[in-house]
Amino acid sequence: MLGTIIAFKDYSVVQGIMGSPWAGLKYFKLFFDNPAAWDLIKNTLFISLYDIAACFPLPIILAIALNEIRQGRFKKFVQIVTYAPYFISTVVLVSMIIVLTSPRLGIFNHILEAIGLHSINFMGDPGLFRSIYVWSDVWQFTGYSAVIYLAALSGIDTSLYEAAKIDGASRLQKIIHVDLPGIMPAITIILILTVGNVMGVGFEKIFLMQNPLNLDTSEVLSTYVYKMGLLNANYSFAGAIGLFNSVVNLILLLLANLFAKRISGNSLW
Amino acid sequence: MAKANSIKESFGDKVFLTIIYTFLIFVVVIVLYPLIYILSSSLSSPLAVSSGKVWLWPVDFSLEGYKAIFSNSQVLVGYANSLFYTFFGTIVSVTLTVLFAYPLSRKSFYGRNVLMIFILFTMLFSGGLIPEYLVVKNLHMLDTRWALIIPKAIAVWQVIIAVTFFRTSIPEEIVEASEMDGCSDLRFLWSVVLPLSKPIIAVLVLMYAIFQWNSYFDAMLYLKSEALFPLQVVLRNILILNTTSSASIDAQKLMDMKQLADLMKYSLIVVASLPVLIIYPFVQRHFMKGVLIGSVKG
Q1: Could you give the 3-state DSSP secondary structure of residue B59?
Q2: Judging by beta carbons within 10 Å of its beta carbon (0-12, 13-18, 19+), is residue B224 exposed, middle or buried?
Q3: Co-location of B204 and B269 in the same domain
Q4: CA quadruple A77, A81, A86, A89: dihedral sign
Q5: Quick check: B162 and B95 in contact, CB under 8 A?
Q6: Within a domain: residue A211?
Q7: Using CA atoms, how far apart are residues B91 and A4, in angstroms rounded to an integer?
Q8: What is the C-alpha to C-alpha distance for residues B284 and B295, in angstroms, rounded to an integer?
Q9: How many domains are contained in chain B?
């Protein structure tokens, strides 16, 4: 943590952290003066928000749907299947994406051609990058995230269900009026934690998915920090950006928490 | 539920249930298809894969992809390394986590709250990539095996799960009883807490093991020597950067190699995920329990 001081100094490898001259906010300014900075921030935000919008509701829907199933075997089967992709490593997942979307080899393009459309170079199209990133996230994590909601659902008082049934509520009504309110605390907390991570868009996966063709939309703050800092040894500069990233996350987290407290009385603290 | 007493489901409800079933089946297909496709492709002949003949089941069943993988020294070294890191990394991680979490779970521990807040803070905020790198560098761990075992040894989330578990499963009475009998803390930890903690240790082992097996970034960041690369990095080099060894001059051979390279990708994906996916069915119950314990605290 002390290393964050680097962001404020002219770091020289020889002099070490404490020995390097103090540079104040120089590197922060350097970063923001660069017009590319705003593109980076834009990309980061865009991908983050898109990711949250797609990844957040689906596990809830899946959990609620699963909760309606009485038949144990089918329920277990679906759970096991959807849970599996979580264990696939990022490298393997991105390899799968590359292989499945490849213009020549990939099954997706085979399907497209079979119905008469042209094959698309998915990974080479900056416009498609975000969607590929986000929907593969959905594929991988929905099952895993749904488990938390399922646990929350099982904690709902069964007498509420019975009351609903006696009052003649349809399944849909039961979901809206019993299930959803019952898991609101879990939803709120997970939402807060997710929002707090908005600017820290998953470096590893994006880094693997980047190629020269899609850099326009795929370069985000974290990958930039990596390239600047470690590959170009521009430690202070990258350190400044990294710190900026973390601080923004923290602020967003606190804001989200405050917001949640006001609105629903649930919060992280 | 006695048939005579149950309230009949309305027609609307039946329709809704059908929709739900359809949705779930749709979800299962979407999740399963890529997995099955990759497995089938890996078991097909190079020619079938390259010409796009594979749709669902293997075409021209062959194990050539796998043969190619296991004769590739990079892959084998990577596998061995990954096994090493997973084994030792998990032992180190679990030990440290338990040692860290146990004192935190005891009310009589001084400074407990401060420490808790401290580590929780790191869960929400971190110095970033550069300071972390510099710390590793200054500790002379760059390009050594330690770089993959020490820095990420303790995951705060796991500590929280462990603390919750200790708090709820080790009743104060046992603690007091052992204190009265003159049992030292260390002895208590070893003889009483550990045997009682089998479930949580199982969860910790699983989560750390999976994490170690799948991680590539730390290796990419801190390691330079090829001999130390874990499997995931080798995979990345072969599958994503397309850097395999050897070049061939003969045109036919070149084409064969290209086809084999394509096939190899599928087989490689399968081989890399195999340990995980094999253990998974047996282990998923414990995993879910781990997630549940953690989320209850949340």
Answers
A1: coil
A2: exposed
A3: no
A4: positive
A5: no
A6: yes
A7: 31
A8: 16
A9: 2
Return the pLDDT at B223: 80
In a domain, B4, yes or no: no
Low-confidence ranges of chain B (pLDDT < 50): 1-5, 244-250, 297-298
Q: How many other C-beta atoms are found inside a 10 Å radius of the C-beta of residue B241?
A: 10
Spell out the residues 6+ positions from residue B115 whose beta carbon is closer than 8 angstroms to its own. B104
Q: Is residue B205 part of a domain?
A: yes
Residue B1 resides in a domain: no
Q: Is B28 close to A222, i.e. CB distance below 8 A?
A: no
**Residues B199 and B276 reside in one and the same domain:** no
Beta bridge partners of A22: A9
Q: What pLDDT does A9 receive?
A: 45
Residue B126 in contact with partner chain A when CB distance is under 8 A: yes
Closest CA to A12 of A2, A1, A23: A23
Q: What is the pLDDT of residue A77?
A: 84
Residue A269 lies in a domain: no
User: Helices (H), strands (E): how many in chain A?
Assistant: 15, 0
The upper half-sphere exposure of residue B19, i.e. CA atoms within 13 Å in the direction of its Cβ, equals: 10
- Other CB atoms within a 10 A radius of the CB of residue B176 amount to 10
Q: Is the same domain home to B134 and B215?
A: yes
The Cα A143–Cα B27 span in angstroms is 10
Structural domain that includes position B254? 11-70+244-297
Assess contact for A27 and A239: CB atoms under 8 A. yes
Tell me which of B27, B41, B82, B224 to substitute to probe the interface with A (most A C-beta atoms closer than 10 Å). B27
User: What stretches in chain A show pLDDT beneath 50?
Assistant: 1-20
In angstroms, the separation between the Cα of residue B191 and the nearest Cα of chain A is 32
Domain match, B29 and B101 both: no
Q: Kindly report the CATH number assigned to the domain that includes residue A34.
A: 1.10.3720.10
Mutation pick from B23, B35, B39, B130 vs chain A, by most beta carbons of A within 10 Å, is B130
**Predicted pLDDT of residue B249:** 39
Q: Which of A116, A140, A118, A99 shows the shortest CA–CA distance to B54?
A: A99
Neighbours of B15 (CB within 10 A): 12
Asked, for residue A253, whether it belongs to a domain, the answer is yes
Expressed as residue numbers, the domain containing A12 is 2-264
Residue type, A154: S
ipTM of the complex: 0.71
Find tokens 């590893």 and name the residue.
A204
**B88 within a domain of the structure (yes/no):** yes
Per the CB < 8 A criterion, the answer to whether B151 and B132 are in contact is yes
Say which residue the tokens 């989330």 belong to.
B157
CATH of residue B111: 1.10.3720.10
Round the average pLDDT of chain A to a whole number and report it.
75
| Any domain includes A191 | yes
Token readout for A171 is: 């399944």
Q: Are residues B223 and B274 in the same domain?
A: no
Find, in chain A, the residue whose alpha carbon is nearest to that of B206: A87
Q: Which residue of B has its CA nearest to A226?
A: B129
List A252's β-bridge partners, or say none.
none
Work out how many domains chain A is built from and give that number: 1
Nearest to B31 among A68, A139, A245 (CB): A139
- Judging contacts by C-beta atoms under 8 Å, the chain B residues touching residue A94 are 240
